[in-house]
Design goal:
The chain has 447 residues and is of the alpha+beta class. The chain is built from 11 helices and 10 strands. Helix 3 packs across helix 10 and helix 6 packs across helix 9. It is a multi-pass membrane protein.
């Protein structure tokens, strides 16, 4: 039964990826059609065609390698620009030059008589930007909608001021876990909460003379009172009991004003010396507000952007993991294979309620859409961000020519970016293979 449930989770993630990629391509397809572009192909995958059908002038289908999707728009690359005399310069015979011209020729072979006014490079800059931006924006909308559905419709784990557990001893630095109970070593000091007589089931209602309404508020008050003997009022068996506690100064994972963990540039937890008493809160599932849901979407975008900005460092770490030189960072980059495995573990875990399983799968697919949004905005071809950057550069060149009273320059020769596109594609392919290998050999697990 667990194997079947695991496969269900993997298939749900795979279906989510398929739908997300197809919706991304429709984000390009719809505005391109509205603006009159001709689109010969709309495919999911790469390599040999497994199945296809034709609707109008477009062939839709699925290819053998499920790595990506694409919409082929006629006229992405302009013909070779002419010199001032109106003649076409001879093509360069260098290796890169031949590669550029071969790329141009492949694109121009799609142009048919009557396409003159339907070519992508002849469209106004704003139309090209809208077409290229359409895919990532669809993923942003879908990702945001799914995250909001998960956290507002199903709820999120929310800490309360009720004490779930009291730690027996104080552990510091990376050994410190979320203020919960753990095994103690000889010489570890007793926690202030245990010394003060706080018990599981107590509800903290006031600390240092101030009433607290939530766990984050109580946690901030405790952390700010390091070394100060403070009264703590707890509700126990329907009565308020006042105790005395002195938070010990300890290196704990830093949190922001909303109680969210703070991480460094490498995505690792940041530790700070704060007051600590050694209690863990009871967690309840509560529907999030719209503001909380949007905050979580924003945090998701920031997390993916952080991975992109530090991608070389992250890949170096993954390479060390592949060689067995370093432990896997659970917050590091992960391939679709790893994400699918996590989805399978969630659906196969009998301790997780079905409501939480559904919410988790929805959240994962939503996060994948956010990742598609951020990665496709990288200003490098063949990603959408590279084509957006090329269109904007074209617009700036035309504006500068207009300001100087000169004729508009020919369209920016995007064929010259073909070597860069090939290099970027190669890097992402190698990155994907490396991540898949690590996800198979050193997978991130829920436990």
């Amino acid at each position: 039964m667990s194997v079947l449930l695991f496969l269900v989770g993997v298939l749900l993630i795979a279906l989510g990826v398929f739908v997300s990629v197809v919706l991304h391509e429709f984000g390009h397809f719809i505005p391109a059609k509205l603006f009159g572009a001709r689109i010969p192909q709309f495919f999911f995958g790469a390599g040999r065609t497994l199945w296809s059908f034709r609707r109008g002038e477009t062939e839709f289908g699925i290819k053998a390698i499920p790595l990506m999707g694409y919409v082929q728009i006629v006229g992405m690359i302009p013909p070779r620009p002419t010199d001032p005399a109106g003649t076409v310069p001879a093509a360069t015979t260098s290796l890169l030059g031949r590669f550029v011209e071969d790329t141009r020729q492949v694109d121009l072979e799609q142009v048919k008589p009557g396409d003159e006014d339907r070519l992508f490079y002849r469209m106004p800059v704003w139309k090209r930007v809208v077409i290229m931006l359409g895919g990532p924006l669809v993923n942003l909308v879908v990702g945001t909608a799914l995250i909001l559905t998960a956290v507002m419709g199903f709820g999120i784990a929310t800490p309360t001021t009720t004490v779930a557990a009291v730690s027996e001893c104080v552990k510091t630095g990376p050994a410190a876990q979320n203020d919960g109970a753990g095994s103690c070593a000889p010489g570890d000091p007793k926690t202030p909460a245990l010394a003060a007589g706080i018990k599981p089931g107590d509800r903290i209602v006031a600390f240092a003379g101030a009433r607290v309404s939530g766990w984050n508020e109580a946690q901030q008050a405790i952390r700010a009172a390091a070394g100060t003997r403070s009264p703590v009022v707890v509700e126990r068996d329907g009565k308020e009991v006042t105790l005395e506690v002195t938070p010990i100064r300890s290196a704990r994972p830093a949190v922001d004003a909303l109680g969210k963990p703070v991480t460094d540039a490498a995505g690792k937890p940041v530790y700070t010396d704060v007051g600590f008493i050694g209690v863990a809160p009871v967690q309840t599932i509560q529907p999030a507000t719209l503001g909380q849901g949007l905050d979580m979407t924003g945090e998701n975008i920031k997390a993916v952007a952080n991975v992109v900005l530090h991608l070389p460092q992250r890949l170096y770490q993954v390479g060390r993991v592949a060689l067995g030189l370093e432990e896997r960072d659970p917050n590091g980059p992960m391939s679709v294979v790893g994400v699918g495995r996590i989805g399978g573990e969630i659906t196969a875990d009998h301790e997780i309620p079905w409501k939480s399983k559904i919410a988790s799968v929805i959240m994962i697919v939503g996060s994948l859409n956010i990742a598609l949004f951020v990665f496709n905005l990288i200003p490098l071809t063949p990603l959408d961000g590279g084509n957006i950057a090329a269109a904007l550069w074209d617009g700036l060149r035309r504006l500068w020519a207009k300001i100087r009273g000169r004729h508009a320059p020919p369209p920016f020769d995007t064929a010259k970016l073909a070597p860069l596109s090939a290099a970027v594609f190669g890097v992402f392919a190698l990155m994907s293979v490396l991540l898949i290998f690590v996800d198979l050999v050193h997978p991130v697990s829920l436990r």
